[in-house]
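User:
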Amino acid sequence: MRRELVNSALAIVVFTVVLGLGYPLLMTGAGQLLWPNKADGSQVELDGKVVGSKLIGQDFGGKPRYFQSRPSVTGYSANVTYFNNLGPNNKELSTMFRDNLAAYLDRERPFNPDLRLEDVPSDAVQTTASGVDPHISEANARIQARRVAEERGISLERVLQLVDENTDGRALGVLGEPGVNVLELNLALDREAA
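Assistant: Predicted structure:
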């Protein structure tokens, strides 16, 4: 029995060192060596200062000169990502969608007077599974482009060109829909205005 206890204790120590320390350090090192930016969260730096991540949506404070991200139930907090998990018949979900739609129309209609309810893309109203998706749809970006162009004094054509330049294609060419990375687009607009 003593031998079995010693072997068990030794196995615990060996597996703790190998799987609890060695393997994570090896994977972290490989990630840092092969994909340093991605391993660090795909951070975006501007003048040596981290301003966000390509992978995490953020709030642009309702500033009309910026493209706005999709709604978030987490307040764009990367450390508490979750889906609201409300069913289609839930009154709270219906109220949230109605409020998000009203806010979107209030923000965009002055610049798109013909904007109808059925023209509003779903990503302008609905949250994502994580609550921090960094992308909006091309349709959403094209609607917001008029507001951003007018607020910044840049031609609509140039803003739409920047939208196209900051649109990511489908994953592996077939998965998902193309999306516009809001942070990268807003930084491109800031560079344009400078």
